[in-house]
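User: Could you write out the 3D structure of this protein bound to adenosine-5'-diphosphate? I've included everything you need below.
Assistant: Certainly. Input first, then the structure.
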Amino acid sequence: MPRSKTSSLSPNRSTFEQQAEAEALFTSIGDGAISTDEFGRITRVNPVAQDILGYSETELIGEWFPKKIIAITSDDIPVNLIDRPITKAFLTGRSISEKMYYRRKNGEKVPVSISVSPILLEGKPLGAVEVFRDITLEEEVDRMKSEFISLASHQLRTPLSAIKTYSHMLVDGYMGDITPTQKKSLRTIISGANRMNELISTLLNITRIESGTIAVTLRMVQLERTIDDVIKEVSMMAADKSISIELKNESQASISIKTDALILKEIITNLVSNAVKYTPENGSVTITTLQRGADVLITVSDTGWGIPLQSQDQIFSKFFRAPNIVMRETTGTGLGLYLVKGLVDTLGGSISFKSREGTGTTFYLTLPRTPKRKSTKSTRRTVTTA
Ligand code: ADP
């Protein structure tokens, strides 16, 4: 009979052996690894962590982790103790993963992807293990990718505007009479060019968000007016499917908020056009607005196909399209909600949804009536007040 292998959990292994094994494991991890005791004092550091941070083992052991290992945002603002992944892991008793920057001993800043797990014994924290990776290269590749998309999108805009201008001139008869068949073909060209234009805007906005260079111009915006404009823009698509669109203001008076008008419109356009697009004929879309304390709540509900339960946690991911939609509606990029999420964050708001497949979906958008000063998120953004 073959002898069963001795596992590290085997009771007949000595504590000494188990410790040696844990030590070897810790040292050989390909990412930086630091462990702490229950007070956050550093107890172990592997060679990769020393390489990334530029500190030797003796400089780190015994030090209080959050003080010695300085975390900063991309704007060089120190990350608050309460926002540090290690603090969150201690407070919640759960593993926390985040990206931020660490300050090396020589003052340089290094982007890191961090994952911290608390060490618990019968629910009580005994310490934590943080594993982190230098993501300088990934950030650089991302930056180059964004730069390329931005450049390509700008270059595509010029020929596209020529296509649009001349198609409009042809369809409006400025270049002589055209037959109904030619008119129909030209309308198809115009609608294709419009779609391409929207895609280019989406790509440009995404690169601006990802690079943290999106400009925010704050001014007072009348909410109903913005929503009415959006409804007008999607009304043709809704009429084609006999879908009704209704706007209800649940507050006593009309609502004005201090925000970026273009970003707000982009968010609402995406939500309302999705509601119309993913609702079958004769359905309805309802938009409500409500002023609640320092916030406004906007909901967009539809009686559409809904989002399957197993797809719900991926709905704001880049390029994601749920399988029930892909089989019905071939046009779409899966970029709209990813962009919406980024834009909502930019305005200091939040977004969530509830959906039931076959019944419908409601998106809940909360925005501050007056945005707080610059967010502490690790992105750069320009905020101006008009
Ligand atoms: P796209 O509409 O181009 O596919 P989005 O990012 O706007 O991309 O949406 C991502 C996916 O989320 C959609 O493909 C669809 O599966 C789902 N979705 C978004 N809004 C709705 C909605 N109102 N009803 C049902 N599914 C939706």
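The radius of gyration is 27 Å.
User: Perfect, thank you.
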